[in-house]
Design goal:
four-stranded antiparallel β-sheet, Rossmann fold, 10 helices, about 25% strand, 10 strands, binds magnesium ion, six-stranded mixed β-sheet, alpha/beta, binds adenosine-5'-triphosphate, about 300 residues, about 35% helix
Length: about 300
């Protein structure tokens, strides 16, 4: 056998693909990278992300889908960015590139000072695991696996001891307010609790960056505010850079900056002047209890 497969990378890639994330078509690698190198003066003070003239073309048989048509975007450390735009405008495609799940067809992507646009699948997997946490609309937890084990999952790929793994996973569950539910399986948890487990899993490797693709899409309004409270806390208290895709203006107002996509381009990019504070709003919202549910059934 000539082929060498790194088993850890194989598991990791399986994990991502199993979570509904499409692997990149390798066809586009044939296209030449013709963009100029980015000059340092183009970058902001502490850019975590710098996308420069990013294009993405998907090939489906003979058909080419030009999903991104020249995206240039810089996100500095500690920013909380909401990405909005119509369906099909290229939000998830951009997120997949930022998250090193996919590669641009053309253009450069500098993540934390390193050009990652042309890295191999395995190199991208290493970067994902060490620098980036992901949260998805559908939670993407493993069924028949406890909350604690779900949170421990990203650490299975690193050299962390079992004791340390448990400790870090518990700390992450504490950070999202899920103490006491660590042994519950996803089907024993509410949607909001499952999303908290997913956020704890995203946190556990202490990423510099958390990417969330419609994290409140499956949640009711109070639970959405609770999830936004966690994101705002992580952003404020731990300085984690956050990028969140949403269709809801209300949700975007918890971010500090909004970037709007249209037809594979950035249509507008602005600061949120009157930012919402999830923690303050929750104090005013009535708590939903089991009794309330019973009343509704009567
Ligand atoms: N793997 C793929 N193969 C072919 N075309 C794709 C692929 N992924 C996305 N596209 C196309 O690229 C364009 C941008 O898709 P993308 O998923 O980024 O949109 P989006 O803004 O996230 O939309 P939504 O709000 O519906 O999630 C669309 O035309 C879509 O059909
Ligand atoms: Mg999408």
């Amino acid at each position: 056998m000539n082929s060498t497969i790194n088993p850890q990378s194989a598991i990791r890639n399986q994990f991502w693909e199993g979570n509904g994330v499409q692997a990149s078509t390798e066809l586009e690698t044939k296209e030449k990278q013709i963009d100029k190198k980015i000059e340092p003066q183009e970058l902001g003070t502490h850019p975590v992300i710098h996308l420069s003239h990013i294009h993405k073309v998907y090939h489906m048989g003979d058909i080419e889908v030009h999903a991104l048509r020249g995206i240039t975007l810089t996100v500095n450390k500690g920013e909380f960015v909401a990405i909005m735009g119509a369906s099909g405008s290229g939000k998830s495609t951009t997120m997949n590139i930022i998250g090193c799940l996919d590669r641009p067809t053309r253009g450069h992507y500098i993540l934390d000072g390193r050009d990652v646009s042309e890295l191999s699948k395995d190199e991208r997997a290493d970067i994902r695991n060490s620098k980036i946490g992901f949260v998805f609309q559908g939670f993407n937890l493993l069924p028949r696996t406890s909350a604690l084990e779900n949170v421990e999952l990203p650490m299975l790929y690193s050299d962390v001891s079992t004791t340390e793994r448990h400790k870090r996973a518990m700390d992450a569950l504490i950070a999202v307010g899920l103490v006491g539910r660590e042994h519950s399986h996803p089907n024993q948890l509410s949607g909001g609790q499952q999303q908290r487990v997913a956020i704890a899993r995203a946190l556990v490797n202490q990423p510099a960056l958390i990417l969330a693709d419609e994290p409140t899409g499956n949640l009711d309004s109070r639970t959405s505010v609770e999830v936004m409270e966690i994101f705002q806390k992580l952003n404020r208290e731990q300085g984690i850079t956050l990028i969140l895709i949403t269709h809801e203006h209300d949700i975007a107002e918890y971010a500090s900056r909004v970037v709007i996509f249209k037809d594979g381009k950035i249509k507008s990019d602005y600061r949120v002047t009157e930012r919402r504070d999830a923690s303050e709003e929750l104090k005013l919202l009535p708590t939903i209890t089991d009794d309330d549910d019973d009343d509704e059934d009567d």
